[in-house]
Amino acid sequence: MRILAIVGSLREGSLNRQLAEAAGKELSAVDPQAEFAILDWADVPLFNQDIEVPAPEPVSRVRREVLGADGIWVFTPEYNHFFPGTLKNLLDWLSRPVGAGQGQVLDGKPLAVSGVSAGGSGTACAQDHLVTLVSFLNMRVMNKPRLTIPHGFDKVVGGRLELGDSLPYLRRQAEAFMEFVR
């Protein structure tokens, strides 16, 4: 089983990337046979129909990776009570038909959502907006459990996110997602 993580922040050391890395470790503990990878998509251009066909190579690459995944796990920050515009751009590319007679690559894919934020909502607002969009794109959303971690910078020790009391919730989500994907 292959789980592909999409981190909504492009910053290499972002809290959500660190959360995704921790989720990968939890998935390995839940199912040692599971593959977990974080999608590299920083080179995906802004969506523009003038360059849509043929798709730019970075877009073709991320589409292949999404197609090859059994499940998608999104880790989103919250910017002004919404998910980042860069993540919306990626989803716009992924929502477009791949070619003649082919649909878009997100159709029917199982999805889990998590996030850590500096503020008090723990990305709950961003996650709700994201779920609205991906539901329209016909993804199969695992609505429970979702993980929202507020006040993320308070959980940073030596430059690294320390999940502490949030770790059991991440483990529970990993277990539930593996069952959901199966």
TrEMBL record:
Enumerate the spans annotated as NADPH-dependent FMN reductase-like domain. Answer: 1-153
GO molecular function terms attached to this record: FMN binding; oxidoreductase activity
**Superkingdom per UniProt:** Bacteria
In terms of Pfam families, this protein maps to:
FMN_red (PF03358)
Annotated Gene Ontology cellular components are:
cytosol
- What this protein is called in its record is NAD(P)H-dependent oxidoreductase
Q: Which organism is it from?
A: Thermophilibacter provencensis
